[in-house]
Amino acid sequence: MGLFTRTFSHKKWVDAVDRVTAGGDNGFNVRFQALEVDLDNISAAFNTVASGLPRQVTLNLVPNLTQAGTNGWTHALGTASKGATKGDAAGIQPVALPGTGTIKSFRALAANTGNGTLRLELWRQEMTTSYQSTVAKIVAQKTTPGQTLDQTLPPNAGTEGLDPKYTYFISARLDSGDQNDTVAIYGFQIVCVTN
What we know:
Elements (H helix, E strand, L loop, with lengths): L27 H24 L3 E7 L4 E2 L5 E4 L2 E4 L6 E7 L5 E12 L4 E10 L5 E9 L8 E5 L7 E2 L3 E10 L7 E12 L1
Antiparallel strand pairs: 1-12, 2-5, 3-4, 4-12, 5-11, 6-9, 6-10, 6-12, 7-8, 7-11
């Protein structure tokens, strides 16, 4: 049996015999109400089918990094930068991902004019054991002043499945930078497909 079975059946009117009226067993109101019921049933059937289809979810995140080392990130409206007199910075931010589905990609936008190593990583952590594993790791290459690094990576094999037993977070770590370097993070994007 399908998701929809038609219930409306049109009874033909005959010219010069039937008098078309709004009320009664053969009036417009009864017929249109029957059509409404069928249309509601069609809508419900489509919603049932559509709810089972995978759908893509894109999370766009501004950096909001909590200090996770000696030096944290300095935040301005929509960005995070290393401190002006610092050569390193470290921070993490939690990410709320869907409970089930698949991670498709992790993207980061940043700038790093120096020779320091900037690592931008998506992590997952088991809630019961605190075991952590890297889902995706972007090592930001040196950029020229005014240039933005825009890099997207797929998840590491075996880490793409979303599972409610994990929590997720992003870490941003700069090591061995110079205090005169410009290092900034502009945003993160995570693309998932939910079931």
